[in-house]
Amino acid sequence: MRIIVGVSGATGVEMSYYLLKALKSIEDCEVHLVLSKGAKITWELESSIPIEKLTALADVVHDNKNLAASISSGSFVTDGMIIMPCSMKTLAGITAGYAENLIVRAADVCMKEGRKVVLVPREMPLGRLHLRNMMSASEYGCVIVPPVLTFYNGPKTLDDQINHIVGKILMQFGITFDKFVPWTGAMEEE
User: Fold this and answer.
1) Which class for 102: exposed (0-12), middle (13-18), buried (19 or more C-beta within 10 A)?
2) What would the 3-class secondary structure string for 47-76 be?
3) Chain segment 115-159, per-residue pLDDT in tens
4) Which of 50, 97, 117, 156 is the most core-located residue (most Cβ within 10 A)?
5) Do 87 and 64 contact (CB within 8 A), yes or no?
């Protein structure tokens, strides 16, 4: 399996660390990582984890300015891409086909090749333009997985919440994540 992970400059960049740790635990999973300039800045503002710990989890780290990278071509076969978090700027670039950087170009390539693209949009509240762009991305084949809190699985920590989101993302690629607690049903009252 080969997956591209894009990290844009929206808040919540540390979620990508959890995602890469999960992908690293999968046998024969090759991870290609692209960090935007905004992601690096946001990482410094939000995380106490050194960014080198994130990049060390990837098999290949690409420069977001390098539009000639392997992942910018459809002939470089991947299983798809995850953008976590996905800024509204990145979302807009994807829906407009404006591939000014490698994150958007790699998403564009995955979409044109019919590969899975999972977007984890991070904005609140969502404006009409954001919602329209998410709808457009969905119509183009992207899967939208907003990082929404969950309560049915009894989370006790922020880690539990993030692992739930990571599990939902990995399900899109047919991957079972051992830290994901699924809904198992409830008994109906008569």
Assistant:
1) buried
2) CCCCHHHHHCCCCEEEECCCCCCHHHCCCC
3) 999 999 999 999 999 999 999 999 999 999 999 999 999 999 999
4) 117
5) no
